[in-house]
Amino acid sequence: MKYFNRGTKKVKKIIYCKRFVDFFSKYPVYKGAFLLSTGTLIAQSIGILTLPIITRLYTPSDFGILAVFTSIISVITILASFRYDFALSLPKQIIDAINLFGLCILLLFINTMGLLFILFFLGDTIIDNFHLDSIRDYQYFLIVACLGGGLYNILYQWAIRERNYRIMTYTQINRQGNGAITKIVLGLLSVGPIGLIIGDIVSQIFGVGTFIRGMWSNNRDAVKNISLSRMILVAKAYCRFPILSFPSKLLNELSLKMPVLMILMIYDSKIAGLYALANTFLVVPTGLIARSVSDAFVGEASKCVRNGSSELRSVYYSTLRHLSLISIPLLGILSLTAPISFSIIFGEEWREAGYYCIPLALTIIPQFIAFPTSKLHLYGRNDWQLMYDIARFGSILLGFYVSLIFQFSILSTLTIYGLIMLIMYLVLIILNIKAISNLSDETNR
After folding, report:
1. Dist CA 12 CA 20 (whole Å)
2. pLDDT of 408 over the 60 cut
């Protein structure tokens, strides 16, 4: 009887393993997401475990300065290749893809030199006009962050094209680990906000060498086919990305980073730092899943688009459904318990930030559901994405303007912001469903 029970348990394990394999065979997007999530889980765990240490080494004002710096960098890096990097997964022929890659690198270096020129001659004027005095002493760090971050993004998009999930995961661990260590070491030396800034730059550029080695080993012969004439051809072929996707992504980043800049303008750097921690607290655990699913979804969705497959609609709906089932309980629990847990985890100085999590959940929950599967540029609807981003940017700007005029409290301001984002993400889901339906109808004709 004992041996029979052991045999039964062994059979059950085999059955469960087979179901596990069958699931990933049926939903390939989750196979990529699983590979990315496994490694990224380690990377994000490093960030989560070290955050309570970092918050005790730096002040809310230091975090506010970092939040402003990273907000500016996220906007600047969009200029790096004018969004041509997002087209890397689309060319069917490797010669077109590799020349598109060369174009992205060329644009990155040109724009980095342009940024250096602007900061050297107009840096102080820009800082004065936009009330960015908190980063005046750190403005030239923007050059290194722009070059390193832009190069990483280009190489990352190439890895998505090749569905090289292992290297993508490995670099995520390197970035998070080295960035956290740098922040802690510099924090122990009491260097102030520059420690956070340098740590963030380190986390941005680590992994570039790994990507370059992987890309070179797989495409050594293809790189020889890069030429200026061919780069001009692919630039024209995918011109909708700089014409439509570039301003769209710029507005998208401004919409996401605007709260930090507006909070700094309406309140102060301390409030901006408290907001940054609250936002990070909700984004980090969900960002692990969202980014992994997004990268894997792009890989599978772009393959469906290239091959004219009708499976795109089912992949979209299944991914959307699973993300919805994960987000509400996970983020609901985190946001509702934050007012109690923040002072325990991060220190008494950060207690107020816990209350910010409740209105921010209105933003993060729909963002977690909509972001990974919102790929209108893949469906040829860059124009829809641009119109949507214009509408969202205008709505958020109006919301903060109302808060400024009526001098609302920070909690009221975040509630208004959360409701606006909730409505706009629902609109985005509807647009994606419509775009996929149109693409499927065209394929079936």
Report:
1. 12
2. yes
The lowest-confidence range among 20-34, 156-170, 198-212, 424-438 is 20-34
DSSP label at residue 59: -
Mean pLDDT lowest among 49-58, 142-151, 300-309, 316-325: 300-309
How sure is the predictor about 21, in pLDDT bands with cuts at 50, 70 and 90?
very low
Residues 6 or more apart in contact with residue 226 via CB below 8 angstroms: 98, 99, 101, 102
CA distances for 422 relative to 336, 339, 365, 367, 399, angstroms: 18, 22, 8, 8, 13
- Distance from C-alpha of 346 to C-alpha of 344, rounded to nearest angstrom: 6
- Three-state DSSP class for 160? helix
| Helices vs. strands in the chain: H and E counts, helices first | 16, 0
- CA distances (Å), 289 to each of 33, 35, 431, in order? 8, 11, 23
Residue 374, both tokens: 């919102």
User: What is the spatial distance between Cα 415 and Cα 438, in angstroms, rounded to a whole number?
Assistant: 35
Which ranges constitute the DSSP H helices of 162-245? 165-188, 193-205, 208-223, 228-237, 240
Length of the chain: 445
DSSP 279-296: HHHHHHHHHHHHHHHHHH
Residues 176 and 46 sit within 8 Å (Cβ to Cβ): yes
Give how far Cα 222 sits from Cα of 210, 214, 409, Å. 19, 13, 57
Interior angle at CA 139, CA 136 and CA 144, nearest 5: 165
Reported pTM = 0.77
Other CB atoms within a 10 A radius of the CB of residue 128 amount to: 11
Say how far apart CA 190 and CA 197 lie, in whole Å: 13
CB atoms near residue 4 (< 10 Å): 8
Q: Which residue has the tokens 């693409």?
A: 439
Under a CB-based contact definition with an 8 Å cutoff, are residues 231 and 105 in contact? no
CB 423 within 8 A of CB 282: no
